[in-house]
Amino acid sequence: MSPAIWSDLDYYGVTFDHLVPVDDADPEVLQLNIIEVESDQGKTANEYVRFPVDALEYTGKKVLAVPRCCQKRKGTTDRARVNNEVLYRDGHPNPWMQSK
């Protein structure tokens, strides 16, 4: 069985939290969003990223991974959502109640 090849990314994010203590209620992880540029020739990337993105620089060659600080989106719930997902992954029984 060969691995599946994806030609389109809906959303993909990576969090870096390996040194954050397991019992930390507010882990403040670093979140990178992987932004797909091939399906729309970089239109979405150029709409949400704070620097110009040339799709030809990435198509078939590179992955565009953008930290939250370099994005134009106003995600007021991003921090809580990401922190809660990390807590849930680590086995907290109901992390969504913790940050409310």
Concise account of the structure shown:
This protein has 100 residues and is of the alpha+beta class. It contains four helices and three strands.
Describe the structure.
The protein is an alpha+beta fold and 100 residues long. The protein has four helices and three strands, in the order E-E-H-H-E-H-H. Helix content is 26%, strand content 15%. The longest helix has 12 residues, at 78-89.
Computed structural class:
alpha+beta
* Biggest β-sheet description: 3 strands, antiparallel
Shape: globular
Helix content: 25-40%
Order of helices and strands: EEHHEHH
**How many domain regions?**
1
SS element count, helices: 4
Radius of gyration: 16 Å
Number of DSSP E strands: 3
Question: In angstroms, what separates the terminal alpha carbons?
Answer: 45 Å
**Percentage of β-strand residues:** 15-25%
Average pLDDT score: 76
Side-by-side strand order of the widest sheet? 1-2-3
**Unreliable stretches:** none
Outline the secondary-structure elements.
Blueprint (H helix, E strand, L loop, with lengths): L11 E5 L13 E6 L7 H6 L6 H4 L5 E4 L10 H12 L5 H4 L2
Antiparallel strand pairs: 1-2, 2-3
Which descriptors would you attach to this protein?
100 residues; alpha+beta; 3-stranded antiparallel sheet; 4 helices; 3 strands
